[in-house]
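Hello Y.,

Per our agreement to keep a running log of every chain we model this quarter, I'm adding this entry. I've kept the format consistent with earlier entries: sequence first, then predicted structure.
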Amino acid sequence: MWRAYLFVGSRSATLGELCDALGPSSDDSHSIGDVPRRPRRVPSQAPPRPLEWSKWTRPLWWRASRFAGVDGITRAVSMLPEVLADRLRTRAHIGDTVRLVVVQNMDGRDPVGARGFYLQPLALAWLARAGAELDLDQYADLVDEPEEVDFGYRPPLDLEWWRDRMVASVRLLDGASAELEERDAASNEFVPAASPGSSPIETRSPALDALYQVIDEVCLPGVHIGYWIHPAEWLSEAEDRRYPTSVVAEGMTREVVTFGSDGGGGLFVLALDCGEILHVYSTETGNETRSVEPVLRQVAPDLDAFLRKLLDVVDELVETGDTEGI
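Predicted structure for the entry above:
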């Protein structure tokens, strides 16, 4: 797992002054003179002292499907505007600390995150122009690492990470779309779960139960032909909404849960026997049991892979302005 951000620490400027000079800062920033909140676990003794320096940060963004250490971070840095590098260099010249901070978390479940790190010349040139230091933090936790990792192994998807990445990517997409006046900036919407940690319904699928602990619904009408992950309560209304609860493929009836759809009239269903995700092209039937004989296409071997693919489609659209969709 990788994350990276630009950092400026100043003992002379307030956070507001840094934001005026460099642009908006992320939520973990603070201003000189702020009083830090004392962690609850620390016994209350002397009152905390006001902070003696300001912290400005801006997280870097790259496509979730890219290897961040080599390709993603290099691309993210080299695509930053040159005017920002010049402004950062001005802060460095007056004594502020300017850094690119890269954090790498390594554990035995994530062989991709455990790869090495280097930056390509384009990124190094941008950092040199900005007068920025490089700070690489590495954290290794090899407890319970797998003895063998098969080719193509992918660790289980961290749904909270996926949710946060999707929220950030949708914001970037709508911001770019608003500038180009191509789409309504409010058209795409990612709705986190109202009560995180508790699934509102039983979906009959542990994978979907886990998903609805972190989201309520996803509405992406501005992505390719449009994609939706339905609200959790819709899954219990399959009969009323005329969604299939089973499909017939190669003479076999398979029970499914319909959890999403696209703008072309297709549905995304999860097969309860093996967890694969199917795209249902047609649901025309008069059978009250909702057993259908549609055109089927497997789009992912499981829900994790489907969610990764959906995020990559959004990221591809942000990065290139085009996508072939799921």
